Amino acid sequence: xxxxxxxxxHPNNVCMSYYxxxxxxxxxxxxxxxxxxxxxxxAFIPSLFITSSSDIIIELDELLKKSGCRND
Length: 72
Hints:
This protein is mainly α. The chain has one domain (about 10-65). About 65% of the residues lie in helices and about 0% in strands. It has three helices and no strands. It has helices at about 10-15, 20-45, 50-65.
């Protein structure tokens, strides 16, 4: 039998409300956008943003580990 998907299913699975999950996902999207720009600039001018990619990976990894309950 097909399960009806709810937009609230995933946020509930990670112990977040829909609103908190939305804010968190938008924050991640913003961080990815900024990091993408820095990586693009770094490709052409390697002396700029030297550690920005590895820095954001570490920062976001720590943030993801602390968020929600990670039950999925």
